[in-house]
TrEMBL record:
Protein name: Knr4/Smi1-like domain-containing protein
Residues annotated as signal peptide: none
One Pfam family here: SMI1_KNR4
InterPro entries per the UniProt record, alphabetical: Knr4/Smi1-like_dom (IPR018958), Knr4/Smi1-like_sf (IPR037883)
Domain of life: Bacteria
Originating organism: Shewanella decolorationis S12
Domain Knr4/Smi1-like, chain residue ranges per copy: 13-125
């Protein structure tokens, strides 16, 4: 999935039943590039060339747990799929499929930072 120079800390990829569980639990279509990343590695981490500079991909179970939690209500309209391990969340904006960075301590979604227009673009920032 990534070129050989990327240091991706890989987990075992998700199977079809896990992918189906995720897709049936949410009320919008996830980008195909995100689904393909989960098939490759259901969790993992690598450096990014953009804010938040490090990417920790949540496993499907972790993403679903967050999606179904009360905490996610503060960020309605966004699907949290990871973070940087230090308080910044990475999310897919449900309306546009853009990838954004959210300060987990600030529920003001007007301060969300768009870092990629598409998930494919976001993947291109992984180092």
């Amino acid at each position: 999935m990534f070129h050989e120079n990327i240091e991706w800390y890989k987990s075992k990829g998700a199977d079809d039943s896990e992918i189906n569980q995720l897709q049936s639990a949410i009320n919008f279509e996830l980008p195909e590039a995100y689904i393909n990343l989960l098939r490759f590695s259901n969790g993992g981490e690598a450096s990014l060339r953009v804010q938040p500079l490090y990417f920790v991909l949540d496993s499907i179970q972790d993403a679903l747990s967050y999606f179904e939690s009360d905490a996610s209500k503060a960020f309605s309209g966004y699907f949290i799929f990871g973070g940087n391990g230090g308080g910044e969340l990475l999310a897919i904006e449900q309306q546009t499929s853009a990838v954004v960075c959210i300060d987990s301590c600030n529920s003001n979604t007007e301060e969300v930072i768009r870092i990629a227009s598409t998930f494919d673009e976001f993947l291109s920032y992984i180092e």
